[in-house]
Amino acid sequence: MRHRRLVGLLVATLVVQGGVARAQVAGDTAGVPQRDVMDILSRVLHGPPDSGVVDTPPKVVIAVLPAFSVNPAYGVLFGVSGTMLTRLGPEETTNSSNASVSVNYTTKQQFNVLVRSNIYGPHNKFLLQGDYRYLDTSQPTYGLGPAQPESQKDELEYKLIRIYQTVYRPATGRVLVGVGYHLDNYYEIVDPNVEQGLPSPVVDYNGGKHETHNVASGLSLDLVFDDRDSPIYATTGYYINAGFRVHTTWLGSDSDWQSFQSEFRTYNRVGGRGVFAVWASNWFTFGKPPYLALPAIGWDTYARSGRGYAQGRVRGENQLYLEGEYRVSLSRDGFWGAAGFVNILATTEPATERFGRVDPGYGVGLRIKLNKRSTTNITVDYAWGAEGSNGLFLGTGEAF
Predict the structure, then answer these.
(1) I want to staple 228 with a disulfide (CB 3.0 to 4.6 A). Which of 72, 158, 204, 237 is the partner?
(2) Please, which residues have CB within 8 angstroms of residue 358's CB and are 6 or more apart in sequence?
(3) What fold is seen in the domain 2-396?
């Protein structure tokens, strides 16, 4: 009994039978019992696990896990996270829904609370996308434009309250259109370079002023198309997302400015066990956003772009991004996998407002099946970028 409680503390997983995501098995893996970390823990602590073959897909998968990850932006992260995967309608007409909650603390004395959701109604009659955050954090900045030398680092500290909520309705087929509200409240901004009398890229951007509080508040018009076979580990399909945001002073924004973001993802099977995935995105701004609201690598919704760079390492008024990744299962039971990836980033130069040098990133990674029902992997990647940037990126779930 003590062993069972210990497993529950390590990985608490609730499964309600009915119908969500099917285990990704194909080629020579068909009919082979699939394994994950839960099976290993069960075998070690209290005997053999049940059959690894998921004959009846679960309706809801809820996992509460200890959170542990490594990233150059925050060092080592500890905490707890919960994820949910479900389907609220028939598989033929309803996309899978997922949501996550995490509370964590890092070795760089950062405290973060994040709640993110992507909920499709029955028959895709609506979609609710949410991104809520409280961050008490620090992050280096190097100025605007392509990757700058490490010697130009300015270690900012700030707090952020983020409230993003978008509501979509069907337009045609799997295309949905929506409207949203987006608030970023940056406060208690501390700039060590200013305190030490050193040049500050933030002060330069603000015309010589040191600002300790910035607010960006606006409305958006959005579009999304999603026909992936899974939002967690897609093997086929496309994902398209685009949004135009208007930030205005009458909604509480410090200034009037606009932004446009879009992304395109595609997934294709390669042989029996491989998947080749491509992610392309752009992020443009018009007017003068707060410095911390400018396009920056790693500031996508799930902070997964630009492996090879710390979050915020490259920042500018406009950015273009492209990444390709090959993923492959190394074992027939799906427990072990690997990945190789390459990404490129183009950022506008502040002086010319034209795209400057392209910054590359590349790396390799190991995959360990965390949950075979939701097809979630533990990801261990090492990546390299420009200007000596490199690091270990450890987390759960694929980058895209």
Answers:
(1) 237
(2) 146, 344, 345, 346
(3) Porin (2.40.160)
What residues does 153 pair with on adjacent strands? none
Quick: pLDDT tens for 265-313.
Answer: 999 999 889 999 999 999 999 999 999 999 999 999 888 999 999 899 9
Spell out the domain ranges in the chain: 2-396
For residue 98, give Cα distances in angstroms to 124, 141, 310, 329.
Answer: 14, 32, 26, 23
Structure pTM?
0.86
Backbone angles phi, psi at 241, to 5 degrees: -140, 135
What six digits make up the tokens of 145?
């434009």
**Helix (H) / strand (E) containing 325:** strand 318-329
Residue 398: phi and psi, rounded to 5, are: -70, 160
* CA 343/CA 362 separation, integer angstroms: 6
More confident call, 225 vs 391: 225
- CA distances (Å), origin 231, targets 119, 166, 192, 308: 11, 18, 40, 24
In angstroms, the CA 129 to CA 158 distance is 26
Residue type at position 87: R
351-368 confidence digits (pLDDT tens): 899 998 999 999 999 999
CB atoms closer than 10 angstroms to residue 33:
17
List, for residues 219-263, the tens digit of each pLDDT value: 999 999 999 998 889 999 999 999 999 999 999 999 999 999 999
CA dihedral 351, 354, 356, 359 (to 10 degrees): 120
